[in-house]
Amino acid sequence: MLKTLSLAALVLTIFPSLLYVTGVLTLDTVKWIALVGTLVWFAATPLWMGRTLEPDADQVKI
Q: Which domain holds residue 15?
């Protein structure tokens, strides 16, 4: 589900620009839609990318 949300957000970032070029959307509308798509993409994508986080210094025993 997160991958689908991430892909939809990426489409919201790119597709409005194409609609602006064809004259369907105004520039202000494109800016708002792209901003929302960017924020959602940055929020959703790290959750499914599967990278492992390094342990914090207080969790490492020497």
A: 2-49
Neighbours of 37 (CB within 10 A): 19
The two tokens of residue 48 are: 């499914």
Helices (H) and strands (E) in the chain, counts: 2, 0
Q: What is the pTM of this model?
A: 0.69
Each residue of 5-25: pLDDT tens digit? 998 999 999 999 999 999 999
Q: Give me the number of domains the chain comprises.
A: 1
Q: How far apart are CA 51 and CA 8, in angstroms?
A: 21
- Among 38, 44, 31, 45, smallest CA distance to 13 is for 38
25-to-12, 32, 46 alpha-carbon distances in Å:
13, 11, 30
